[in-house]
# Entry
Amino acid sequence: MPERRHAAAGARKPVWRRPLPPRPPQPPAPAPSARPPGPGPTPAEAGSIVEAALYRDGVRVSSPGSLAETFRELREQPSGMAWIGLARPTESELLSLASEFDLHPLSVEDALEAHQRPKLERYGDTLFVVLRAARYLDAPEEVDFGELHVFVGPDFVITVRHGAAPDLSAVRRRMEDTPDLLKLGPEAVLYAILDAVVDGYAPVVAGVQNDIDEIETEVFRGDPEVSRRIYELSREMVEFQRATRPLVGMLHGLMAGFAKYGTDEELQRYLRDVADHVTHTSERVDSFRQALQDILTVNATLVTQQQNAEMRALAEAGFEQNEEIKKISSWAAILFAPTLVGTIYGMNFAHMPELHWVFGYPFAIVLMAVVCTSLYFVFKRKHWL
# Structure
């Protein structure tokens, strides 16, 4: 609520300072006209809240069923911490959280609209973190990306999930199984969430590596569909690169604030380990993108070579066909000459002078032989035969 939060703002320490300050004594309840009662659970709210819980000293003490119950019980637990998990919340729910926890309007707007780049921003004593989770889908052999927004305050953690990844229920179970870590406060929850998101990249890296190996085989096998697969995987690697590369700077920014905000030494070691994993993953993604570009170049070269071979084969076939046509045309011309002479002498007109000539028949035979021989040597000289 605004009255409670503004009154306690001066007593709060930054989110990375430990131990957490106790809550100040609650003022008397204001008049109904000055502060309306908190909203009750609605059907939309029930569908958006994945899980809400209150913790004290690393142990769950309550599991409210609505935001209103969470707010009320958190006020009654001066040394407690609230962990609220939401999935695609409504605008009214986010506005209710913003009013209760003094969330900055810009961060609320980002969480409502989604489609944000990974980033880490500080608004007073509240950290706003945007993460891009990823998971590998075996059946379609593609990478599915989700978006996670995390608000971290002195006594609360709010997660707003857009997408199926990551599985924050597993993160919650892990933290509840290690109360010594959970009692370190909201910063420990943030570490666990970062660790889960980064660990989720490992199966994606393995799946993409397997896809690249298959693509290399398909490229040299001449699969006609491989170009489309290379292009689609390259686009996924661009998205993967956008998800992992900003995390390196974000985690180094958190590590730079260890001394300033008094981060627990154990958390410092955990966050350094997460930063190492992120750096390694980012380098692998960069190498994947470069490998896909090289494969695409090789595939284009192989396709060009195949097309050149096919054009060469067509040209050779055309040349051979042209040579055959020349031979056929040459022999047709050679055979046409005696046919022409024989046709003329076979007309048997009454006034043909050669009809009664003694040497008419030998002359016709010799004429046909001379014409055929001459044509043969002419075509032979021109390499038609």
User: Anything to note?
Assistant: DSSP finds 13 helices and seven strands in the chain. The beta strands are 49-56, 59-62, 81-87, 119-123, 126-137, 142-152, 156-162.
